[in-house]
Write a sequence for this structure.
């Protein structure tokens, strides 16, 4: 594994602490902790504000106003909610498997936070640029399902167990589609490293344009599978309020519940970030209109992520829920064969040099 | 083609992986049962083996209370049975008593009763549509349904003073005359709802996931629909022409022209379509009547203490859920000797086990939603 830290902002912070201040190894540790805390705060806030965004969007779609009491336009609503959840008593069932029950909420949130570390928000704003970036992302993000399975199993509740089993089946199936659709794009980029992938798009145009037909198919499959990965409607039968009450987190309260809840929203951010990096050029501006301005790079990244998140929220508030066997049919009978064919198509296009990268040179 | 399987030795998977059926309680507190219905489910993984409804959690012995009350008071008890068609329940009792007394009811009363009954039906179906969407996971429909239902409730509030338990009927007519705004507001609503009903189709009916969730699910044959005694949209979705408004017209239904929507598929989608079509028909009934409400009295005077002649009386009406029958056995006193309500929800619930065995948990919720159960109506 080759970790490239030389040219980015975080490397500067570390070298400032360890060399300029002369703190040596302790300086490095301090710097790493500071970077970690910045990430934590940033993504706790991102998670909370995504919840607020979702509530507002749901309200606008559903002819309501949405939260508007705490702060102007309700901007402190979710922070107040999180504080309330922090102060709540952690109730649990007597018959629960104590160790697993208490351990479960940490899996989704930790997995979500780890996978955030590899994203390139701009050319120099990337904490962890490894050459197996995409592989790392798919590997880490699938750890979260362990938490859901454990939570459902250890709660000793039949509804929670049904929810957890559904989740296991669903996420393991759709992981294939996420992986294969990303693999299709990797054929085009020739690299798994996220910074490399963006570099390819700088010269050859966004991958969704460069790869034309197979790239668009891959994007569609990725969005379907990504929605399923985050357990959102139309694939939300893990929770399935009208069927299972609350699904796998029926027996969780307070902050433990909040971990599950926040992880879901951070996962949505991750899925959108991967889509933006792999299909829509990451921090690159459209047609290179603001190429020279460095500080606009993260802004472009977040605008694109925001648009994809909006798309996922529109899915949630307009679609009904699928049934468990329909979900599996969709994956194994339609998406997976289509995906395999798509990879072959992409391979042919790359082999014959039919991609559209020449348009941009 | 039949494949020969006799000679192939199948590994006995049952012995290798031992699975067990297990039991879960859906309800009495559960989001999908819309009330306090308890379903005892025997399931094998996700597949339903048996559904056993356990009733009685909201039993208030309305029929027994009726024996204690005078005929005017009985009307108010019926609000609390099927609270979504309270006006039609009131109408049923009033019609039964009027029939026994052989009262001549003014035309004005008949027309107003019919208009309000159809508004009630639309209100009930819009609520059902919203909740059905929610049951299969589309939460937005709930608010769209309630937006339109709210307008009807406002009309009711202005005329009757109540939004849900209306108490607008009495034996002999109506409690009060309609509000001066009534006609205009109903016309506004009809115009508004005509633009919104296609929106319902755009949001839900055409959706591919919705079609997958409803087509072929909860199949009820015509024979079963008859033998289980289902009525209303449940039976009409299976092709049984059971509309009481057509078979035994009451109030002003004779003078209006409307169709009885019939579908022969017998699945969730058929029951859904029946209800959507019924809303269109109700709109057309209201349109035919609203412009010519006859002048006249809004009630005929009755004695303060109504004593029905000795005998048995039965009146059937079509509520939003199906046939409501009111049976009154009178001994000539001021209270009835026995009152029995034949409620639509009870017989419609009886098909639940029959049509949901073998399907998934998600299907059971969808089936239950298309039966459109109101639990106080079942328990009474």
């Amino acid at each position: 594994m080759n970790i490239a830290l030389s040219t980015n902002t975080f490397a500067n912070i570390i070298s400032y602490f360890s060399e300029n201040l002369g703190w040596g190894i302790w300086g490095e540790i301090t710097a790493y902790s500071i970077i970690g805390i910045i990430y934590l705060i940033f993504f706790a806030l991102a998670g909370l504000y995504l919840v607020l965004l979702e509530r507002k969007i749901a309200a606008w779609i559903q002819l309501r106003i949405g939260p508007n009491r705490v702060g102007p336009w309700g901007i402190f609503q979710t922070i107040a909610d999180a504080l309330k959840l922090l102060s709540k008593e952690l109730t649990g069932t007597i018959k629960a498997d104590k160790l697993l029950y208490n351990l479960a909420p940490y899996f989704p949130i930790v997995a979500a936070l780890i996978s955030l570390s590899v994203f390139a928000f701009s050319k120099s704003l990337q904490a962890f640029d490894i050459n197996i970036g995409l592989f790392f992302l798919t590997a880490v993000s699938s750890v979260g399902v362990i938490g859901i399975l454990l939570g459902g199993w250890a709660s000793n509740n039949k509804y929670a167990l049904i929810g957890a089993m559904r989740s296991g089946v669903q996420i393991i199936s759709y992981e294939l589609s996420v992986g294969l659709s990303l693999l299709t794009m990797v054929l085009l980029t020739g690299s798994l490293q996220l910074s490399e992938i963006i570099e390819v798009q700088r010269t050859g145009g966004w991958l969704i344009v460069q790869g034309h037909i197979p790239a668009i198919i891959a994007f569609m499959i990725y969005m379907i599978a990504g929605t399923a990965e985050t357990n959102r409607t139309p694939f939300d039968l893990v929770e399935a309020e009208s069927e299972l009450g609350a699904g796998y987190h029926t027996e969780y309260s307070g902050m433990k519940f909040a971990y599950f809840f926040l992880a879901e929203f951070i996962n949505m951010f991750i899925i959108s970030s991967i889509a933006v990096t792999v299909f829509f050029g990451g921090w690159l501006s459209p047609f290179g209109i603001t190429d020279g301005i460095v500080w606009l790079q993260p802004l472009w990244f977040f605008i694109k992520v925001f648009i994809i998140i909006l798309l996922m929220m529109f899915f949630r508030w307009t679609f009904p829920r699928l049934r468990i066997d329909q979900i599996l049919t969709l994956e194994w009978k339609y998406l997976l064969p289509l995906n395999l064919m798509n990879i072959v198509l992409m391979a042919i296009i790359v082999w014959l040099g039919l991609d559209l990268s020449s348009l941009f040179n | 083609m039949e494949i020969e399987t006799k000679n192939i030795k199948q590994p006995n998977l049952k012995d290798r992986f031992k699975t067990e059926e297990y039991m879960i309680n859906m309800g009495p507190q559960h989001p999908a049962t819309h009330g306090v219905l308890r379903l005892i489910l025997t399931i094998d993984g996700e597949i339903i083996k048996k559904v056993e409804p356990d009733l009685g959690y909201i039993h208030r012995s309305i029929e027994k209370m009726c024996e204690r009350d005078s005929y005017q008071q009985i009307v108010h008890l019926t609000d609390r049975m099927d609270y979504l068609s309270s006006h039609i329940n009131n109408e049923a009792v009033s019609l039964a008593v009027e029939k026994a007394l052989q009262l001549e009811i003014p035309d004005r009363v008949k027309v107003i009763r019919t208009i309000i009954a159809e508004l009630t039906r639309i209100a009930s179906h819009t609520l059902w549509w919203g909740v059905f969407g929610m049951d299969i996971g589309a939460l937005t429909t709930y608010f769209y349904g309630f937006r339109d239902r709210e307008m009807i409730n406002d009309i009711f509030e202005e005329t009757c003073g109540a939004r849900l338990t209306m108490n607008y009927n009495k034996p002999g007519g109506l409690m009060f005359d309609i509000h001066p705004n009534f006609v205009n507001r109903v016309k506004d609503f009809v115009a508004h709802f005509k633009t919104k009903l296609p929106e319902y189709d755009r949001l839900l009916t055409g959706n591919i996931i919705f079609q997958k969730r409803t087509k072929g699910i909860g199949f009820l044959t015509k024979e079963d629909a008859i033998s289980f005694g289902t009525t209303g949209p449940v039976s009409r979705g299976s092709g049984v022409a059971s509309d009481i408004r057509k078979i035994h017209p009451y109030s002003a239904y004779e003078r209006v022209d409307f169709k009885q929507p019939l579908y022969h598929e017998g699945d969730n989608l058929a029951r859904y379509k029946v209800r959507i079509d019924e809303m269109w028909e109700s709109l057309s009934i209201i349109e035919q009547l609203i412009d010519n409400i006859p002048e006249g009295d809004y009630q005929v005077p009755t004695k303060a203490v109504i004593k029905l002649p000795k005998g048995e009386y039965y009146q059937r009406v079509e509520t939003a859920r199906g046939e409501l029958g009111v049976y009154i056995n009178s001994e000539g006193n001021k209270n009835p000797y026995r009152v029995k309500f034949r409620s639509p929800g009870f017989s419609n619930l009886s098909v639940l086990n029959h049509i949901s065995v073998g399907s998934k948990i998600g299907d059971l919720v969808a089936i239950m939603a298309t039966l459109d159960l109101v639990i106080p109506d079942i328990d009474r």
Observations:
- Chain A has one domain: 98-360.
- The longest helix of chain A spans residues 24-61.
- The CA atoms of residues 74 and 339 of chain A lie 43 Å apart.
